[in-house]
Amino acid sequence: MRNMRGDAMRGLAVFISDIRNCKSREAELRRINKELTNIRQRFRADKTLDGYQKKKYVCKLLFIFLLGHDIDFGYMEAVNLLSSNKYTEKQIGYLFISVIMNSSTEMKQLIIQNIRNDIQSRNPIFINLALQCVANIGDKEMATAFTHEIPRLLTSGDTIDPVKQSAALCLLRLHRTSPESLQLNTEWTARIIHLLNDQHLGVATAAVSLIDALVKRSPDEYKGCVNLAVSRLSRIVTSSYTDFQDYTYYFVPAPWLCVKLLRLLQNYPPPDDPSVRSRLNECLDTILNKAQEPLKSKKVQHSNARNAVLFEAINLIIHMDCESSLLVRACNQLGQFLQNRETNLRYLALESMCLLATSEFSHEAVKKHQETVINALKSERDVSVRQRAVDLLYAMCDRSNAEDIVQEMLTYLETADYTIREEMVLKIAILSEKYAVDYKWYLDIMLKLIRIAGDFVSEEVWYRVIQVVVNRSDVQSYAAKIAFEALQAPACHENMIKVAGYILGEYGNLIALDLRSTPMIQFDLLHSKYHLCSPTTRSLLLSTYMKFINLFPEIKQHIQDVLRHDSNYRSSDVEIQQRAIEYLRLSEICSPTVLATVLEIMPPYPEKQSPLLVRLKQKKPLMEAENNSEPSVTTTTTHTEDVPKFAETAIHLNQQQQQQQQQNGLLVSFDTIESNTHFGESTSYSLPSTITTTETTIQSSKKFLFKNSDIIFENDLLQIGIKGEATKHILRVEFYYGNKTNFNLTNISTNITLLDELESELRLNLEPIKPTIDPKAQIKQSGTIECLQEFRDLPKINFSFL
């Protein structure tokens, strides 16, 4: 605030002093209430208050508001101050309006009109006050009201530089708060871009911030800014700091403008014009050269400013990813920072090198710093720097150094911070599979990983171990051997028991001839861990025992005794009890041939994207960019229920999505990345007029022994799913009909036929179905099925369409 004679407002100073001298909260409240009463009376009774008195009382109200008390009057007096021709009175009015904005429509219209009057005035001080108020409020009404005035003010040739700065920053604020309400005409695009060449660096700096925000919304409209940005950057970088006396910060010319220009250029690919690209490369080369020069000052501000420009230049080099010499030079420069005593520099260097490691031009240069990064992992005090070191080791890993990096990460995992252990487990699992030449080495690493950090091994990790073993017959015998050996440890983690239980249940026969791992020894070893496990793991082990009955008939009686034991047969856990009863009954009534069919070995899993990569991206989105440039690890997906019920070994690539689909009423994923109500792309087919489920329905019905929802029919045109929930003898059912084509299915009709005795055994009540299914969409039909008596036949569903 300007120091003007007569504007000291002694009454305000006295009031503030009284408040500060209050000894208690009650005394302060009494003083405030007394002052509010006095101000209210003066506003009501004295209609001849001059500007000075209004300003004084409005300031008191503002101070009271800032103390945390509500203010419900004085708005009109503050608006009246906006009409004053005195700077101090207008300033207080704008300050009050900016801090305490009344939501009254009439009041807001008065404020907008006063702001418009000041913006259209010739007084630059009043214009700046108005622009600051608009930016401080920054709501939808302000953006709509001044969507034309402020751009016009910004691009006008008559506007002075300080006002242009304020106008650019005001537009930026409105764009951030109400982008949908701020409609900029295309006629202003070229004028706004041209502000990059403004002689006043303050205007250029404000304009870069505005253009950077606008580019993110309309990149094609503002692509002309690239050439001007490169030109402006070149003039700054190649000049001496003495050429920018007013904008030199500790011997660094215009560092904020340089950073903003470099950041703006990262919104576009490398320039197509050879001359522009050459000029940009020259700028980046000059910045790297200056980083090698001795410091011109020992003050931290100088190094901070210089490094800010350097790191932003390196980010642009990484973004362009086309100049191998620049990438290698950037990597070497960052390598020097890895041993810098400044923690922030080490952190930023590791972060930037993670991105450099994904480039084919600089990957080898990054690998040269492997030992330095490993030493940082061991000796760094700051946990965030150690985490970045782990990220960099993960990014620089390839087939040539995978064993060394995985071993170092395993060693560090034993003492790593708990906050990063789960992420490290995922990365070790991914790297050990991705670069495994010998899958025996992979299994050794994974079992060691589970032993070291079992509590941080997510289900996706040990699921993946199972998938690899099932899909690779050459390591199944070795997997059974090391799993059996791992179980012999005095302290065995529960995840290790799960892995060993599954592997021995499938491939225990491959090591049964060894006297040290006979069938009975395998069973006794597994069962010795049984009572220490959670109900989920016990359920899996019961399935393993059932598999043993098929693999080793000689211990069948012993396993049946375990199943009959009260701890299983009468368990309080429903899942354990159900498995014990069903498995016992299955082993008693089924012949060896039937058992061999039911309990046959698991088939190979289909290959899909690794769930570990999906999990890692969910935990750390930054790693997504790193993984995009590398070949993905293939993986497999299983069904979630099997016979026997190895539910714990099932894996779904996106369980969260599946749960969300079930909450939304959907049965299954359609293997697309689109919304839950749409399918992926498919080609056009000629449509039959009717589809009838016959054998497909009969086969699908067996699935409902273990689940309450599934697909009962699917072809290239249509997918039909069902979801049911039973309450006593009534089944609430929902049918889902999905259109997999690119055109409408019309004249939809469904009919569930009850043949012969079914008419007296079941009662159907289904709501009408919509006559049309949109392309890539699905519709739902709800209803109930009431069971009147036991039935053996199945209903028949007829579905017709055009």
TrEMBL record:
| One GO CC annotation | AP-1 adaptor complex
Give UniProt keywords alphabetically: Coated pit, Cytoplasmic vesicle, Endocytosis, Golgi apparatus, Membrane, Protein transport, Transport
The organism's place on the tree of life at top rank: Eukaryota
Q: List the GO biological process terms.
A: endocytosis; intracellular protein transport
Q: Report the membrane topology from the UniProt record.
A: Peripheral membrane protein
The primary site where this protein sits is membrane
Fetch the SUPFAM superfamilies from UniProt.
ARM repeat (SSF48371), Clathrin adaptor appendage domain (SSF49348)
* Span of domain Clathrin adaptor alpha/beta/gamma-adaptin appendage Ig-like subdomain: 702-800
Q: Give the family this protein belongs to, as stated in its UniProt record.
A: Belongs to the adaptor complexes large subunit family.
Q: PANTHER family under this entry?
A: ADAPTIN, ALPHA/GAMMA/EPSILON
What protein name is recorded for this chain?
Answer: AP-1 complex subunit gamma
Originating species: Rotaria sordida
